[in-house]
Amino acid sequence: MCTWTAARLRGSPRAHARHRVQHRTGRIDRTREATTMSAQPAARDTHQELEFGIFDWIDGHPRMTPAEIYDTRLRVLVEADRDGFTRYHIAEHHGTPLGLAPSPSVFIAAAARETERIRLAPTTFIVPLYDPLRLVQEIGMLDQLSHGRLDVGVGKGSSPIEAAMYGLTPAETAERFEQLFPAVVEAMETGRFRRPGAGRRPDEEIGLHVPVYQRPHPPLWYPTSNAASVPRLGDEGYNVLFGFGFASPPLEVVREQSRVFFSHFRESAARGGVRYGLPGRTPRFGMLRHLFVAPTDEEADAIARPAFEAHYESFTHLWRLHRSDRFTGPVDFDQLVAERKVFVGSPDTVAAQVVEAVTVGEVNYLAGAFAWGSLDVEPVLSSVRLFRDEVVPAVRSATSGRVSPAPSVPGSALPV
Question: Which domains does the chain have, with CATH numbers?
Answer without folding.
Answer: 46-123+219-398 (3.20.20.30)
